């Protein structure tokens, strides 16, 4: 998967295309991600007593990872990512536009 938890991504297709947000949860087995403020769903919750009031609750739904791109702060747009091996022997993700190392 080309994105991880905490990455800043931009949605490239669908009803929320163009929105930028942080990845809250990455689910590689399902090939989906949950992004902050994207694909907002509503759920009508029943009143479950005085401590759990009912009402309309909004939450983020999962979207397919193929609909998002990593958002490079330097380029100010969505970019493709690649992998490179650094001089110390570690494998890191890099931006294919500017060559910046994404994993710190």
Automatic annotation (TrEMBL):
It comes from the Bacteria. SUPFAM superfamilies: Translation proteins SH3-like domain (SSF50104). NCBIfam families: rplX_bact (TIGR01079). Keywords: Ribonucleoprotein, Ribosomal protein, RNA-binding, rRNA-binding. This is Large ribosomal subunit protein uL24. Belongs to the universal ribosomal protein uL24 family. InterPro entries: KOW (IPR005824), Rib_uL2_dom2 (IPR014722), Ribosomal_uL24 (IPR003256), Ribosomal_uL24_C (IPR057264), Ribosomal_uL24_KOW (IPR041988), Translation_prot_SH3-like_sf (IPR008991). The keyword Nucleus does not apply. One of the proteins that surrounds the polypeptide exit tunnel on the outside of the subunit. One of two assembly initiator proteins, it binds directly to the 5'-end of the 23S rRNA, where it nucleates assembly of the 50S subunit. Residues 2-29 form the KOW domain. SMART domains: KOW. The keyword Amino-acid biosynthesis does not apply. GO terms for biological process: translation. GO terms for cellular component: ribonucleoprotein complex; ribosome. Part of the 50S ribosomal subunit. GO terms for molecular function: rRNA binding; structural constituent of ribosome.
């Amino acid at each position: 998967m080309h994105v991880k938890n905490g990455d800043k991504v931009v949605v490239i297709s669908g009803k929320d295309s163009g929105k930028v947000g942080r990845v809250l949860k990455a689910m590689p087995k399902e090939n989906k991600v949950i992004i902050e403020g994207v694909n907002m769903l509503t759920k009508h919750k029943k009143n479950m007593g005085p401590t759990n009031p009912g009402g309309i609750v909004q939450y983020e739904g999962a979207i397919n990872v193929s609909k998002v791109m990593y958002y490079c702060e330097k380029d100010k747009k969505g970019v493709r990512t690649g992998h490179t091996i650094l001089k110390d022997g570690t494998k890191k993700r890099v931006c294919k536009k500017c060559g910046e190392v994404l994993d710190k």
